Structures are given as C-alpha cells and as structure tokens.
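The instructor's notes for this session suggest beginning with a concrete chain rather than abstract definitions. Hand out the sequence below and ask the class to guess, before any prediction is shown, which regions might be ordered.
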Amino acid sequence: MKSYKMNELKNIRLLGRNVPGGICGDGAARLFWAASAIEVNLKARELWAEISSDYDVHEIWLAVEVNGSQTARFIAPKSPTWVCLAHNLNPEKENLISVIKDTQPMPGDNMHELKISGLRLDDDGEFLPVKARSCKIEFIGDSLTSGEGLAGAPDEMDWISQWMCGSKTYAVQLAKKMNADWTCISQSGWGLCWGWDGDLNSRIPLHYEKICSVLTGEHQKETGTCDNLDYGDGADYVVLNLGTNDNGGFKIHDDGNGASGKAGQTIVSAAKQFLHDIRRHNPRAKIIWSWGLLVLDVVPPLIQKGIDEYIAETNDRNVYSLELEPMTMIEKTDEDKGSREHPGYISHKRAAEQLAAFISRLTHA
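After discussion, reveal the predicted structure:
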C-alpha cells in the first residue's frame, strides 16, 4: 500500500468553504459545512482515508460515493483511523471517489472537527487529475440545505445528527445535474434575520464572509474557521433557500402590524443588504432566491419586495426568485417523507429538477 499525506496530493478536489488550497497548517484537510467534500479520481483496486473527528454531543456522519452513487455512510471515528472507502475496484477503470460531510457544523461545540490526514491506495494504483466541472454553484440555506430529515423514518423527531444527510439535498442533486462544483453554508433553524425561535444571533449573513465562523473554539479558529473566505472570482450561480425560519420566528418580532410593521421592514432591508453582500463576492453570478418546500405565509412577499427594491436600486438584472413545489404536494406515502417533519428525498429531487429547469431557461433566454 502507498500512503500520502493530504499536502502531498496534487490531484484532489475540495468542495465547500475552506482555507486557501484546502489544506490546513498541519497538512491535513478539514471539512466544515454540511455537503463539504473531498474528491479524488484514480485507477486503483482500493482506497483508504485516515479520518479523525472530535465533538461534544453530536457525532459527525460521512457519506462515501463512487462515481456519484452512495456506497457507505458511517460515523467518523474520533481517533485517527484508516477507513476503507472502496475495495476490489477494476484497476483499469477510472473511478471518482467522494467523501462528503453529512453533518453541519455545531455552534457552541468547541470540539467539533472533521479531519482527513491522508489517503492510501494499493501499490499499483495511481491518482489521476480530477476532471474540471462546467460551473460553480454556491448554496445558502437552513435545515433544508443541511439535509435535516433526509435520514430516518417520518416519526423520528429527535434533533440528532444521525437524521442529517447533507450529501442527498436538493443542492448536491442540482450540482450533479449541472456538472457543477458546489459550496454550501447552512444551519438548521437559522434564517436571514433571526432563527426559528426569534434568536437574532441565528443569522446566516453574520457568517457569510468567513470560512466557518459558527465554530469559535480556540483550536477551531487555529484551523481557519474565523478567517475571511477567499471567494476567488466567485460562483456562476448562487442559490438561496433562506426564510423558512424567519417565517417561524416572525410572531416573536411582530409589533402588531404584521408584514407592514417593523419586523416586515427588517426582512425587506436584510434581503437587500444580503444581496449586496452576495453580489460583491460573486460579480458574475446569477442569484436565485427560492422558497416553498415548506409552506410559508408572511416571509415570501417580504423577500420578494427586498429583491425588487434591490434590482430597482442597482439595475442588477441577474437576481431572480423561484417558488418551489411544496413537500405536501409531492410526498404521498411514508416512504416519500423525511424525518422531523422535513422534506424527504423525493421533495429534494423535485426541487433540484425545478431549479435545473429554471437555470436552463435563464441560460438559454
């Protein structure tokens, strides 16, 4: 077997928000957000990865894919362990192998960490260049983008990382449909202005310009979590699915005047400001703000007003909105449904199809 440290590998693709080059100061790679991934292309009989993790309460789950199809899902070991990712492959065939973080970062857990220190393959195996993708998509969201409920039966209601499956979301499905690289920033229960419980600290825009600043422990910061993210030349598309938790927490901030009151004005203003921030880091992107997998009432018109005002003030014609088909119209049986009253795989698949069709119309307009 041949072993390589991560900083020795040139033919590797890291997906997700990360430090420049994707390798931390200790020579290892870390995956921070849900759906972050490491991909390698190889001709080999087998592939192993040295994986370790740390956490306080919520363990970290990983998914393994071979050529885009999931072959394994497991809890990341705490101690450094060589884990077999693929075995008995045809050594004459090229295979793309992906390791995807299914679990979102956990704010308040100063121990949360997923570390990949090295890769190992058989003596006759070789790493090949990863093939360039057609475009890059940035996803911004909440529990839907984190994959909450994409594992587990419909009656599972405990909030545990076992039911999170970031590798199967509409975001990853859309990226695959479009042959795109992807990056995600998402937190269950968080929103544009406040969280599901009205918490003003549970705002995605607060962390948008950092690598993963929801993780603030001293060791976490040493790995780069609170450093500014290098956006490079930005993404080709930015897809937001943000507002569900603002809708849930709206009544806590409502001054009695509903959508026309202070809470409504806050959402309109925040939507405009966030679009400014997104555009600054993604100058060429088509930005699509979507909602609707979970039925909302108050927030969508407010976000739409923010979008309309932003376009009117900036003349930025590459900002759009899209209402998705609700899960209640898609999921007919228990097999269709996700856990924790969240959308199941079939709803995420439909959302990816709608987004792909929408983007196709934009591209060919």
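Then share the key points. The first strand starts at residue 2 and ends at 5. The chain has eight helices and 16 strands.
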